[in-house]
Predict the structure.
Amino acid sequence: MALDLYQRLGLKRGATEADIKKAYRSLAKQLHPDRNKDNPKTAERFAQVTAAYDLLSDKDKRAKYDRGEIDEEGNPKMPFGAGFGGYSAGAGGPQPGAGGFENFNFGGAEGADLSDLFEGLFGGTAAGRAGGGPFSGFRQRARAPQKGADVAYRLKIPFEDAVALKPQRITLADGKTIDLKLPQGLEDGTRIRLAGKGGEGPGGRGDAIVTIEIASHRFFTREGTNIRLTLPVTLKEAVLGAKVKVPTPEGAVMLTVPKGTSSGKVLRLKGRGFAGRDGKRGDQLVTVDIEIPSDDRELQRFVESWDGGGNPRSSLGV
């Protein structure tokens, strides 16, 4: 005798949604074709378990199944014998009864056309009945074969590669190596779907889903599409101004430090940040940090004899 949907999952009627999901996950891991390549029967069992879960995880379909309105395939059940008043089907065909079906006839010219009634009960269509008699509209299309499982990957990439959107080489579970193209708008946690690169299944391969993790950097930090960097400069470079070499994720460039620059001033390198989803790149924001040597006696003598600078704290009211 065929197992009902609950029995396929090892459950009893009345099981909770959580019970159904837990049972399916456990069985799917055991029966997945990728783990049972030498046992073709498990593929059939896997398909049965998946079909049971598909129907029972749908609240409406599960309710109809529990009420006996649909079968294990999700097809409507025939109502004859359980309703329609006194109608009964026996060896002699339809019999008279209290329901008033004395003239019931499926094929005669005078027979009643119940197609509208059947459509209302079962959702049949005229197109569905065209090729197979008055009941052919009850048949549903066969369920499509189950695709293979999706396979999850996590890929950690260098900060500089993320900025430049440099393709990343990744080895899949089947041993094949591909070059993964990084999308614009890349962020930590971005998921990239590779169609047909997952597990095998009766209906074809599933997908590979790659979650990107962008590695931290020892001196760059990210702020939206912008990149921040703290740049040490000498007192002389800050006072007199200078052109200094500045690192960027794609190589060093020259930056002009204006004359009289103070610590904390932010200079901007346009288009040196991350690419947004619209393709427009952010900037690299460079914060100047003036380094004062602690043992430069010449500088100390100069400052001791220097009576300039005013009061930089006047704006604070002190």
